[in-house]
Design brief:
The chain has about 525 residues and is mainly α. The chain is built from 20 helices and two strands.
């Protein structure tokens, strides 16, 4: 027993001793790790700081510069976050006095002035007709203008493709090519315009019934005489459109449409023509504008009598008609959509209240959209001229296109805001009939919202025109009109017509931006994106 007890005690002593040794070893290891960590922190601290001659602890030079760089970056980031709204807008468009901005502004502002006179003149016409206090007169004027514009825009597909061609030719120094295309376009416009004039002047009632007014419409008696006189300006208008497009291609513009502002009161009141006097004033001013552009084109040697007195050869005209044919399909789709909208508005009630309200709404809408159309014309000119001047440098052209989209978006937003703010004052001006004023309020508000989309939409269209992507543009436009027509079936009344235009415009915007960013000639490829 004593031997066993001694053995057990000895083993316990050995176990306790071993445990104590393990605990001591663990404690020493922990102390060693803490000491190493402290030494590492001290070493890091010594890298960050040093003792100067006066005994003070100061940051080392390399670390000091690094910390200063980080602090500067933080300050810049905080300053960027505190940027005001004007500064942020300035960052979007680039440096102050940027050359691209100057080029866009110098091109767009004269475009806006020249194109803006047309809807303003039409607004003056609408104002004086509205003073008559007859809803059917306003409805008839709206129907006649829509019929005239439909035929005009169907024929004016040629001037729409002249500007990019002239811009590329002038930027490349090939003035003979520019002259040839302008002469061919003017010759075709005179032929097509003469046919349109004869059709509108000789058969106004059948054409109005076919396009705009329903059977037995009371507005026909006002629309037919207005359309007959309005048609006399068809050929001069097409010549002016070609001249204006050629001058845009030369990065220059001329304003010639202001004459109508003075002729309206003379013809309506002093001449005693009444309602028809507005159409006569418009036709005379268009003739004067056509003559001015004719003289200017001759002076700039973009027109030659020898080329105008004989028809161009089929071989030289075919490329122009081929590109213009696609644009003709686009114009056809556009006109079908808005003809259906006008006809639906005319059919809503026999008193002409809805037709008059729709005419006022579209009149106000046209003043805003024509400013955005100026951005479209600017894009259609500057993008191809940039490509030609930089020898097809897509990066430069893409930069120009992006800047145009930014500017056009800003312009569309400003137009929408101004239109919205001015509606309470403008709507009552165009009619003395209380029912017409009330019916035009909500549609005009919706039209203001559409301008938010029109800014980037019209710039996107201009970019595609400048790049010659007429087929793709026609497909996108057709999808837009098809969506609009489908919405007409879902929405009712005058408000439903405007909501249909608004919703379908979203589809158009998505298509244009998707083409520009993803599949168009200026789209950034995966390789370029990685670079």
């Amino acid at each position: 027993l004593a031997h066993s007890f001694t053995s057990i005690s000895h083993s316990r002593i050995l176990h306790v001793s071993s445990a104590r040794k393990e605990a001591k070893f663990a404690l020493e290891e922990t102390s060693t790790c803490d000491e190493k960590q402290a030494n590492q922190e001290e070493a890091n601290e010594s890298d960050l700081f040093e003792v100067d001659n006066s005994g003070r602890l100061t940051p080392r030079q390399g670390r000091k510069a690094a910390h200063a760089s980080v602090e500067d970056s933080d300050k810049k980031l905080k300053k960027k976050r505190r940027l005001s709204l004007p500064s942020r807008i300035k960052n979007i468009f680039g440096r102050k006095n940027d050359e691209l901005d100057k080029q866009i502004i110098n091109m767009a502002v004269p475009n806006m002035i020249n194109l803006g006179v047309v809807p303003i003149v039409n607004a003056v016409d609408t104002f004086w007709v509205g003073r008559l206090g007859v809803a059917l007169a306003l409805a008839g004027q709206a129907a006649a203008n829509q019929a005239c514009f439909t035929l005009f825009f169907l024929i004016s597909f040629l001037p729409s493709i002249v500007a990019p061609i002239v811009a590329s030719a002038v930027a490349s120094g090939d003035t003979d090519e520019a002259q040839q295309k302008v002469c061919e376009s003017v010759w075709l416009c005179m032929v097509f315009g003469l046919a349109g004039t004869v059709a509108l002047a000789a058969f106004p009632r059948p054409l109005l019934k076919l396009m705009v007014l329903p059977e037995g419409s009371a507005a026909m008696d006002y629309a037919a005489p207005y359309l007959r006189w309005r048609a006399l300006g068809m050929v001069p208008s097409l010549i002016s459109a070609t001249g204006f497009a050629a001058y845009r291609g030369m990065l220059n513009t001329v304003a010639t449409n202001a004459l109508n502002l003075f002729l309206d009161p003379l013809c309506i009141f002093s001449g005693g023509m009444g309602f028809v006097g507005a159409a006569v004033a418009t036709a005379v001013s268009e003739m004067a504008s056509g003559l001015v552009y004719w003289k200017l084109l001759l002076q700039r040697k973009l027109l030659r009598w020898s080329k105008l007195l004989k028809p161009p050869s089929w071989k030289s005209v075919w490329p122009l008609l081929k590109g213009g044919g696609v644009m003709l399909l686009r114009q056809l789709a556009l006109n079908v959509g808005f003809l259906v909208a006008t006809r639906r508005a005319q059919e809503l009630d026999p008193t002409g209240v809805s037709g008059a309200a729709y005419g006022i709404t579209m009149q106000l809408y046209s003043v805003g959209i024509i400013i955005c159309v100026a951005m479209q014309n600017t894009a259609a000119t500057l993008v191809p001229s940039t490509l030609a001047a930089t020898k097809n440098n897509k990066d430069e052209a893409r930069t120009m296109a992006n800047r145009l989209l930014n500017w056009s978006t800003l312009v569309g937003s400003m137009v929408a805001l101004l239109n919205f703010v001015s509606l309470p004052f403008l709507v009552p001006i165009f009619s003395t009939v209380p029912e017409v004023r009330e019916a035009a309020k909500i549609p005009s508000l919706i039209a203001s919202g559409i301008h938010l989309l029109n800014g980037p939409i019209l710039a996107g269209e201009g970019i595609l025109m400048g790049l010659g992507c007429y087929r793709d543009l026609t497909v996108i436009t057709t999808a837009w009109i098809a969506t609009m027509m489908a919405c007409f079936s879902a929405f009712r009344g005058l408000n439903g017509i405007m909501w249909s235009i608004f919703l379908s415009s979203i589809v158009q915007l998505v298509g244009l931006l998707g083409h520009f960013k993803r599949v168009g000639p200026l789209a950034v490829s995966k390789e370029d994106s990685q670079k």
